[in-house]
Design brief:
The chain is 31% helix and 27% strand. It has 259 residues and is α/β, with parallel strands linked by helices. It has one domain: Rossmann fold (3-Layer(aba) Sandwich), CATH 3.40.50. Strands 1, 2, 3, 4, 5, 6, 7, 8 and 9 form a nine-stranded mixed sheet that branches. Bound molecules: S-adenosylmethionine. S-adenosylmethionine (SAM) binds next to α1 and α3.
């Protein structure tokens, strides 16, 4: 049976990694959170797609007129609403919505953000105001490649075309202009095997939702012999190295008749 992505995220009900002991070195200078801060002012209306339990909005998005966070998982949205109460922040709402069946108003938002989630650029284009921006951060095919290569499976492992390129082309096809695709290179160092394992059990790095899952459950079975082999060949004095490859995309819906 295939692991259903909806059940997988609904079962997790949060997207926090605070309990994992790791550090990171960011080798490139395109920072998603900074791009968002540059574009939000007090009158902005912002939509965050695939928001999970709202962790990123509540921590990184500045106060503004309106922020809507959506996710297709009811359990994530329940946790997001609880996190919202605990945060005491205003002008933020969370609700269930499928990114592929968006029901937000046309020409409404100044900014749409999507971090590590599926997008439909045509629907995003419709919901943005003319002059509005789209900011995407995604996980690319070569993310954690040595690990995925060792296990011969994982997120995007079998993709013929990198997802970054597919998103980029679809965003241009949808009518966006000033579209930029930027690679993001990060080195992560996990303090101990338990920390790396905790990551792999939560983030779907070694998971491919389109593949058959022999064990028919939501938890991934990790081959510990292979994991030890990876760890032995990636030990550094900063911790166990995991090489991340993300991508950022910025794009604009132009106002008609020039700007
Ligand atoms: C990897 S998490 C990223 C969460 C958050 N954006 C972040 O960066 O921390 C992916 C999120 O996208 C949501 N998701 C996946 N497919 C979706 C879809 N078709 N519609 C709406 N949400 C979706 C999942 O439920 C999950 O909460």
């Amino acid at each position: 049976m295939k692991i259903n992505e909806y059940d997988y995220y609904n079962n997790l009900a949060n997207w926090s990694f605070d309990y994992i002991n790791y550090t990171e070195e960011i080798l490139t200078n395109w920072i998603y959170e900074e791009k968002i801060k540059e574009l939000i002012n007090e009158s902005s209306k912002v939509l965050d797609l695939g928001t999970a339990a709202g962790e990123k909005i509540l921590k990184n998005f500045p106060d503004c007129a309106e922020i809507l966070g959506t996710d297709f998982s009811e359990e994530m949205i329940k946790s997001a609403n609880q996190n919202l109460i605990n945060s005491g922040r205003k002008n933020i709402t969370f609700r269930v919505m499928d990114n592929l069946k968006m029901n937000t108003p046309n020409n409404y938002f100044d900014l749409v953000t999507a971090r590590h989630t599926i997008i439909d650029p045509v629907q995003i284009y419709k919901t943005l105001k003319p002059g509005g921006h789209l900011i995407v951060r995604g996980v690319d095919k070569l993310d954690c490649w040595e690990l995925k290569y060792m296990f011969k499976k994982g997120q995007c492992y079998k993709d013929l075309k990198p997802i970054s390129q597919i998103d980029y082309e679809n965003i241009i096809d949808a009518g966006f202009k000033n579209v930029e695709l930027i690679p993001i290179h990060i080195r992560e160092y996990y303090k101990a095997k338990e920390d790396l394992l905790a990551l792999l059990l939560k983030a779907p790095i070694l998971m491919d939702f389109s593949e058959e899952n022999e064990n028919n459950n939501l938890k991934l079975d990790i081959d510990m012999t292979l994991l030890d082999k990876y760890i032995n060949s990636h030990k550094t004095n900063k911790g166990i190295l995991l090489i991340r490859r993300y991508y950022g995309i910025t794009a604009k819906k132009m106002v008609e008749y020039g700007e």
